[in-house]
Amino acid sequence: MNTKIILIVLGEPNSTFSEILFKYFKSSSFTKNKNKIIIVGCKKLIEKQMNYLRYKMNLKQIFNINQSSQGIINIINIDYKFNKAFDILSSSSANYIESCFDKCVEILKNNKSVILINGPVSKTHFLKKKFPGVTEYIAKKTRSKDPVMLIYNKFLSVSPLTTHIPLKNVYKFIKKKVIISKITKINEFYKNTLKKNPRIAVLGLNPHCETTDKISEEKKEIIPAIKYLRNKKIKIYGPLSADTFFLDKNIKSFDVVIGMYHDQVLTPIKTLFKFNAINITIGLPFIKITPDHGPNYEMIGKNKSDPSSIFYAFNFLNKIN
User: Would you give the distance in Å from CA 49 to the centre of its chain?
Assistant: First the structure.
């Protein structure tokens, strides 16, 4: 296995992400991890959060990725003025988070083999409705077009064609060109990174893939896209009705499910696998992974958060070349 360099941008400082990382760093999984792991964030804040949650770990401050070492927690410091280890969510951390991401993007521009794991951010206080989510924010930072959100589990992954947009606007984005582009990228990711030729299911937009309206998104956009992709030798099936798709006999037959909107596929995948999944952004110049949880402000400082997703992220990275 080749040694990888993994950058972890901490994101929102007032979240459960640091606690989840501490649980990983104290585990035998971290001891066995042969990759170089570098945190990008405020060293003093992390140390204060460690003390608050009663963890004892050493941080090695470095100034560039070439100074990083295996088996320890490397950190590139980004200054941040704070009063308490954990505070209420607000916009006061926005400039700090921006600085953390800027540092990571600067590193990644010159080192595309480096992998990025990003902690959660507040859509209200950080993204401020300028971006639907972190996926689109990073795409803008790296000048990448049409990124794809893939919620990955080794048994079944899902990808919503549209992400964080109101349901009333979803139909506007159901376009043949978009479907073809996103499924092509997912297929290439599976073949090139995971060494697998995936079987892909496509769900319809309307209940039972039918509508009494004059315009059927299935007939006008989804079916023509599927036909085009089949001609490109992609193993694709659909459109399939979303209400019965996630039965055991169906999900065992596929590797990836493409939904037309966010909750159509994210609700069932989280029901099936809980936090044993990761959000992989496809279409960037590098691999970016987001653990499948938000800031979870209700659990901040309680040391009770489920760290499964960060374990899943590192286990996934240990297995790919």
Answer: 24
